[in-house]
Design goal:
There is one protein chain. By secondary structure, the chain is mainly alpha-helical. The chain folds into 2 domains: about 5-80; about 105-314, Intergrase catalytic core (hpI Integrase, Chain A), CATH 1.10.443.10. About 55% of the residues lie in helices and about 5% in strands. It has 13 helices and 2 strands. The chain has helices at about 5-20, 25-40, 50-55, 65-80, 110-120, 130-145, 150-155, 180-200, 220-230, 245-260, 265-280, 285-290, 295-314, and strands spanning about 165, 175-180. A two-stranded antiparallel sheet has the order 1-2. It is globular, with a radius of gyration of 24 Å.
Length: about 325
């Protein structure tokens, strides 16, 4: 890097280099640009300094040490990139503010709660319109497949076939086939029929659409879910303040693991299959979703007792 350059320009170079090698860096990219604008507006020149990094990490209103730690973690690979151009670039130490990640227990939905959610979605207004059908089917697909919300919202018509979904360019820039149960396939076909009849003549880009045929925004879906959640009066059973839409993904993995245990399948094989199905890059990511529900713990206890009995007999 010759001569003084803005931090925004350096972040732009870094993001271009990383994205060229296949990294998306959506959230991280926005955070890095936030840091860069913060540094440039403060008149910061020269190499990245630890002081500038800490001041930005603590600048968010109402933030906590966890937020500060996560912000510094975002800066660490950027600093490693910059040091090849300027040896005076600061080293961002790990865990300066403590751990950057913590796992709050998710809300694992019961089958009864999922059914209640689908019934509530079907009662949305306008009665008889496309909106109730859209949300009932969307929430049902999330529960039945464990898809990320973004993956479901980006499905195109060609991605929904009789027995499977094609999820393209997902979180890790990979595509995958997602087989679906016959009941899920029927629900998708019913929705497609209603959607096409309601929006006859309207150009549709995505499988799930609004009443005007427009792609659904994630924030709109989240807002609708929050409204239904309040109507249902749910109380969180996990570490978060409220049950989340993303908890349907946690629930899918836990229920899939429980069902496979009951059928006697080897745990390692089950986790490998679930990891591939939900699109995780590493099997450890799938284990992150596993929650010690009473049902899973009961089976674990039974297996331990059986193992102990076999060991005692020998």
């Amino acid at each position: 890097m010759n001569g003084p350059r803005t931090m925004v320009a350096r972040v732009d170079d870094y993001l271009a280099a990383r994205r060229h090698t296949g990294f998306d860096l959506g959230v991280a990219g926005r955070q890095l640009l936030s840091f860069a604008r913060f540094a440039d507006q403060a008149g910061h020149e020269g190499p990245l300094t630890f002081d500038a990094a800490v001041r930005w990490a603590q600048s968010a209103r109402g933030s906590t040490r966890l937020t500060w730690a996560r912000r510094l973690e975002v800066l660490r690979p950027f600093a490693r990139y910059l040091v090849q151009f300027d040896a005076n670039t600061a080293v961002i130490p790990a865990r300066f503010f403590g751990a950057a990640h913590r796992r709050l227990a998710p809300h694992i939905y019961t089958e009864h709660e999922i059914v209640d959610l689908l019934h509530a979605a079907n009662d949305l207004t306008p009665t008889g319109g496309l909106r109730p059908q859209t949300y009932q089917t969307l929430f049902g697909v999330l529960a039945a497949t464990g898809l990320r919300l973004s993956e479901a919202l980006h499905l195109k018509m060609r991605d929904v076939e009789a027995d499977r979904l094609t999820v393209r360019q997902t979180k890790f820039r990979k595509s995958r086939l997602v087989p679906v149960h016959v009941s899920t396939a029927r629900a998708l076909a019913r929705y497609a029929t209603v959607r096409d009849r309601t929006l006859r003549g309207v150009r549709i880009e995505t499988f799930f659409v609004s009443g005007r045929g427009e792609p659904l925004a994630a924030r709109t879906v989240e807002s609708t879910f929050q409204t239904l959640r309040a109507q249902l009066g749910w109380v969180a059973r996990g570490g978060h303040a409220w049950p989340r839409l993303h908890d349907l993904r946690h629930t899918f993995i836990c229920h899939g693991l429980l069902r496979s245990y009951r059928e006697g399948h080897p745990a390692d094989h089950v986790i490998d299959a679930l990891s591939t199905y939900v699109g995780h890059a590493r099997v450890s990511d799938t284990y992150w979703y596993v929650t010690a529900t009473p049902e899973l713990m009961a089976i674990a206890a039974q297996r331990f007792e059986s193992l102990a009995a076999d060991g005692g007999a020998s």
